[in-house]
Amino acid sequence: MLRALFSKSQRFKRGSGSYLKWRTIFSFTKLQQQKQFPESNDILCTSEIDDKDREYQELSSRFFGVEKAYNCYIIHPYIKWGPKKQILTTPEDQLEEAESLIRTLDPWTVEGKVVVPLTSLDKKTIFGSGNLEKLRNTIRSSKATAVFMNMSTLKIMQIEELESQFGVPIFDRYKIVIEILRLHAISKHAKLQVALAEIPYITNRLTQKDIACSNPEKRKLMLHSREQKLKAAIKKLRTQHEMTRNRRKSLEFPSVAVVGYTNCGKTSLIKALSNDKDLQPRNQLFATLDVTMHAGLLPSTLEVLYVDTVGFISDIPTTLIECFIATLEDALFATVILHVEDISSKKRKHQRNHVLQTLENLLGKSLWKDKLNKIITVGNKCDLVEEIDNESGLIPVSAKTGQGLDKLLKVLEDAVLKESNRRLLTIKIPFGGEEIRWLYKNATVKTEEENPDDSQYENATVIISEAKYHQFQKQFCNHR
Ligand SMILES: Nc1nc2c(ncn2[C@@H]2O[C@H](COP(=O)(O)OP(=O)(O)OP(=O)(O)O)[C@@H](O)[C@H]2O)c(=O)[nH]1
Ligand SMILES: [Mg+2]
Q1: Which of 180, 263, 306 to mutate to test the pocket of ligand 1 (most atoms within 8 A of CB)?
Q2: Which ipTM did the prediction report?
Q3: 378 in ligand 1 pocket by Cβ < 6 Å?
Q4: Is the pLDDT at 96 greater than 90, yes or no?
Q5: pTM for the predicted model, two decimal places
């Protein structure tokens, strides 16, 4: 598609052919150079912090590390009635998501799975005596080496009680998501964020025995000081991100942030729109943890930067989300936001609600209201559904087959032009004059064609910002 766009951009009749080609390639290189945020070397990396915190290393190895693969029995306890009952998803669908989380930790395996209806999740044993006995018998007679309770977080006393009942380690979503993030974190930034997310997990899981055995004040101090160091390093990175954002703004590159629930196809869609061969979509939850930039061309040859982001997931503690706020900041400052939904998923409404609610919480009500009209909703994976709902405002596409991408690009272009105060104009100018040189320097020249009524003139179709157009009018006053 990109090749098609390039050749379209070169379809002009005479004049500065090689100039346009050169300019497009030059700008594109500038865009590609911005692909990833630069990370300065003076920022503390996690391994430096770890070396200094040997005590932390010992502590953390007790809670994390996937060297040992577990064969998990998954239990999804759910509230069967009352205000806490989930209405946009079913327990079976949530169980399926829990299974995907475990499968993402390959070679971990799933021994068995069950949904258990309850009236409350606050009991020390979670389950009533009947359910508890049934589960105990099932798990103890199975080959399970761990139990994954599909709940956001468990209290330490609940973990201790269930471990004594089932005879295997007990994990919650917080623990499983951190393990996945540890595996997928590649950049310094992502590693720092995951390291920060580990601290509240560990703090809340220290047992009475732990506290009695060692000097609790010293441990508290060690965790606190590590937290401070990590926060300082992340803050430094955020400042760098801000500088990159401002530089991008000053270069006038519009950006399109691609957000959505994990595994909905954000990376695949960016790959299809930008034709960036380096991108690697994967059938895993939290495959993308770093914000990356990918240059693409809209149908009018306007250059944009697609921003890939970390996916959302429901039922994880806010401390875990907070660590990834920095990676989302760029998304929220983008010219346009593409919200990708997996329309083949039965949990689509639940996922949509979760994404929108989280964004609203991050931004606050008034800023969110402002952003709402910048959001374009895309229904990805339409190749997997037989009948597509005619839902207003939703553009069905398939990143896999390319279906719907042309329409999406058109909608995207209109939105980018509007939000970035640009215009698509055809201007009558003297052939070969100062005007065309000025336009090449200050705008995107899409085509040049001979004026049919006057061979002394040409019609240049350009994309130009409002401010530059005013400048042009002031300087030349010879336009149409
Ligand atoms: N059938 C089909 N599969 C798709 C489509 N788009 C993406 N996929 C598949 O969905 C899976 C997830 O794709 P990604 O692009 O990695 O999804 P993501 O939203 O970036 O995921 P995270 O980074 O983990 O949040 C991969 O196996 C893709 O091949 C599509 O349009 N149709
Ligand atoms: Mg991704």
Answers
A1: 263
A2: 0.99
A3: no
A4: yes
A5: 0.81
